[in-house]
Structures are given as structure tokens and as C-alpha cells.
Predict the structure of RNA polymerase sigma24 factor.
Amino acid sequence: MRARTGAFARTAYLLTGDRRHAEELVQTALTAAAERWTRLDDPERYVRRVLYARAISRWRRLRRRAQSPVGPPAERGAALARALAGLRPRQRAALVLRFHEDCSESEAAEILGVGLAALRDLTGAAVRRLHEVAPDLTSDLTGETEEHEGVLS
């Protein structure tokens, strides 16, 4: 599990957009896993599920306060962070799982606690929304140019 901590931290940073919150999120997820270690079939999957669930809860709290997370400093990274911040929490989580974590649809659906059809709907809606606000970013996700807008399945 120690070897995966860096990967968890990167994922948490993409989910939160803030290094301090990402570190807290990873610590919370690892602590939760440690408390249930003997009962877990797949501790890594459990940690990832806690990361996403807690990140979604945080996004909801931030939205209620009308605040959004701060993005990474690089120009392209900042544009991506702004675009992701405009998505609904579950849409953002679906994109991070599918395209950053490179999870299969079934893995992503299980982590988010939704069915495959719901995951496809979340991903499709998120890619369409990103295409509206940042078309240059979605070509990286879909592998298509603006002229051939598409949604990943």
C-alpha cells in the first residue's frame, strides 16, 4: 500500500485541486483502510472508493458555500482544473476514474456505486460539458478534433 501512496496523492490532487486537501484526503482514506484492514478483500480499491466518496462530499460542501477548489499552477492544468470544477461532483469523479486512473467502466461504476449505464451517462455528460467550456481539452479525452465531437463509451 505504501508504494501506491504517490498514485493516491496524485488522484486526490486531481479530485481536490488543492495539495493540502489532497494530503488530508489520502490520510483519511488510508486511515479508514487501516481500521478495516483484516476485513478488506482489496484494500487498494477500498482506499480509492474512500477517496472518491470523501471528495464528492467536499465538493458538495464547497458548492453550498459557493466556493470552488483552486487548480494547479500550469496554464493547461489550470484550464483543466477550472473546467473540472464546473462539473457536477460525480461527473468529475467519473472522468478522473476513467481517464486519469484508467479504470475500466465496470471498475469505475463499482467505485462510484452506480451501474454501467449511469457511469456512461455521467461520463458522456461530463465530456459534453467540458467540450462546451474547453473544447481543446476534450480532444485529448475523445481523441477527436472539434469538428468530430464525440463521447467516449
Observations:
- The mean pLDDT is 79.
- The two ends are 31 Å apart (CA to CA).
- Residues 96 and 145 are 21 Å apart (CA to CA).
